[in-house]
Specification:
Layout lengths: L4 E4 L5 H11 L4 E5 L2 H13 L4 E5 L12 H29 L15 H20 L5
Parallel strand pairs: 1-2, 2-3
Helix pairs in contact: 3-4
Length: 138
C-alpha cells in the first residue's frame, strides 16, 4: 500500500482534486483545512468511494492589527509556517528512502487579512528554502 498522504489547506479546488487523485492511487489521505463541515463531508465522500480518509480542522481567525492578540498571531505562525517545517522534517527519512515529494500549495489571501497573509508569505519562503537546501538529495 502506498504511504499516507497529508494534504493541508484542503478546500474546494486544487487541494480537493489533489486529495482525490492521491486516494485513487491508494494513499490513505489525511485532510487538514479550516471548514469543519466541508472537511467531514469530503472525508466521508472519499471513504464512500473506498478510500481511507481522515479529516482534521486547523482553523484560525484574525481581526484588524489593533485587535489581534500577539499570542494569536504566534499561534497562526506555528500552525501555518512552522507546521510546514515540522511536516517536512518528519517526512525526510521516508523521502530520502523512497524519493518522495512534498508539495506546498498556498492561498493568495485578501491583503486585508494581514496576519493570515503573512503566514502564507512565510510558508512560500519556507518551501523555497527547503527546496534549495535539499536540492542535491532528490
Amino acid at each position: 500500500m502506498p504511504g499516507t498522504a497529508i494534504v493541508a489547506g484542503v478546500g474546494p479546488g486544487f487541494c480537493e482534486s489533489f486529495a482525490r487523485k492521491l486516494g485513487r492511487e491508494g494513499h490513505p489521505v489525511a485532510l487538514f483545512g479550516r471548514s469543519v463541515d466541508y472537511l467531514e463531508d469530503f472525508a466521508a465522500e472519499l471513504r464512500a468511494d473506498g478510500h481511507e480518509a481522515l479529516a482534521h480542522t486547523a482553523s484560525t481567525t484574525t481581526g484588524s492589527s489593533d485587535e489581534l492578540d500577539p499570542a494569536r498571531l504566534e499561534e497562526m505562525w506555528c500552525l501555518y509556517a512552522y507546521g510546514g517545517l515540522l511536516c517536512v522534517r518528519e517526512a525526510l527519512p521516508d523521502l530520502r528512502e523512497h524519493e518522495g515529494t512534498v508539495p506546498f500549495f498556498g492561498a493568495h489571501p485578501d491583503s486585508g487579512d494581514y496576519a493570515f497573509k503573512s503566514t502564507k508569505d512565510a510558508t512560500r519562503g519556507l518551501a523555497r528554502s527547503l527546496a534549495e537546501c535539499h536540492a542535491d538529495e532528490f
